[in-house]
Amino acid sequence: MGKYETTMSGAAITSTLTQMSMIGDIGKEILREFGIKKIDVKREYSFKIRGSIHSETRKRFGKEALYFYGCTMMDGYKKVREEKGAFKADNFYYKNLEMVNHKNAQTARKFRNMYFKIFLQELGDMTKATIFTPVDNMVGTSMRILDKDKIEFSLTNAVLLENEIFNRGMIFDMLTVLGGKWNFNIKFIKSKSKQDPRGWCKFTWIIDFKFNKEKVDPFEKQKELRDNAKQKFIDNVLKDSNRLRKQSELLANQLGKFIPPQMHKAMMQGDFNTDVTTRRKKLTIFFSDIKNFTDTSEKLQPEDLTKYLNQYFSEMTKIALDHGATIDKYIGDAVMLFFGDPTSKGEREDARACVEMSLKMQEKMVELNKKWKSSGFLNPFQIRIGINTGYCNVGNFGSEQRLTYTIIGGEVNIAARLETAGDAGKILMSYETYSHARDMIDVKELDSIKMKGITREVKVYEVIGRKKSKIAAVQKIESNTPLSDKKIENINKKIEAIDKQFSFLKKLIDDLNNEKLR
What we know:
The protein folds into 3 domains: 7-215 and 223-235, H-NOX domain (Alpha-Beta Complex); 273-467, Alpha-Beta Plaits, CATH 3.30.70.1230; 473-518. By secondary structure, the chain is α+β, with helices and mostly antiparallel strands. The strands form 3 sheets. Strands 9, 10, 11, 12, 13, 14, 15 and 16 form an 8-stranded mixed β-sheet that branches. Strands 4, 5, 6, 7 and 8 form a 5-stranded antiparallel β-sheet that branches. It has a 3-stranded antiparallel β-sheet with strand order 2-1-3. 51% of the residues lie in helices and 22% in strands. A hairpin with a 2-residue loop joins strand 4 and strand 5 (150-157). Helix 4 packs across helix 9. It is elongated, with a radius of gyration of 40 Å.
């Protein structure tokens, strides 16, 4: 690898990874793309690794992020160098602090240039120690004094040309120690800069210095520079976080249209298991479809068919979600739902919720039929429903690459069979479901059915309607209905019974009120 392209020391790559770790896993993501699990500081690695880390950081968080990292790049090196006597440039600066910040411009200029040369040489040596090119002596630094306060400065290292702002931040930060007497501006000269396809890149800048007669604390100036760079960087990180949050919310909303709400909520909370796993559980299963759908659809224009189907599915789905159903799938004109997973209110309440939902669906279909007929739909959709309660296998079926959350088993087949056996506008259910909802509905028992793979005979019940209370039955008698003496006597008895219940309740309330007054 090193023979044909520029490489970098593992220590330099590790330094970049450490520096970038505060903004997430960009470094780790790039390493995975290169098939690297861990960096060995004693090895050499392709220049493309750090280049990719810098480029991804710039794309996500803007050039301000790279500028900030450039400003702080030397901090890690300084800690290492302190053990060996610190940087030569720093030693020179502190030894000649008075001369570097001399009030005489000519004196200050002389020591400024001396500092610049030492800093230049040291930066070049560090670059050569960590970056290795297939052609000798390609990396390093050079300078040329263009005017007394104008210097052309070049650095050749393994930073990509597109990420020049990183190098500029590093240089700006290192030169801020001269800020006690010099204001300066760094201008990138792109025409004199060049990226070599083998990995190294030459960068050229022109630095304009202007003597400052006022006394300025260079370290305060450096702190201000870093704080400003950091704030701009943080602002971009927050913008990216908001962008990702909005993107996440959009994706979550879109995902919610394809999976059951219960599963969607669990996924958003991180509580949903995506392993290929199933469990055995007692559920209530619902199937419905449109009776004679093929014949009806052939008589409609495609645009009208789409409109009516969308209205139908929207209304049925709303009712299903309102009652806590898990929507398994839409199969053409058919709907498959179940109750009891991933959330459950208990076997009995799940079955009752399913029955109540089915009643609401058929009631809604009556409303839709009136609406559709008035809009010119001569033979509107009518649905049939089958319900069964029993043990199923429920969970994630499929492979590691793709999963589907669904249910399978003989009890599912029973619900499907009941649906196909029903007439338009009817609800058929097994005894296992009816036993939980017998106080809710009036039914008619039909002939039992036998199914392959099911050892028992399946008792079948057709829902006639909601069960009406005795009071409601009395209220429903119309005034013009001819009544016999016996019927009148029975009604009077019922009224007397109601009066007794009312009197008892009134006395109980009075007793409770008297008890409170005591």
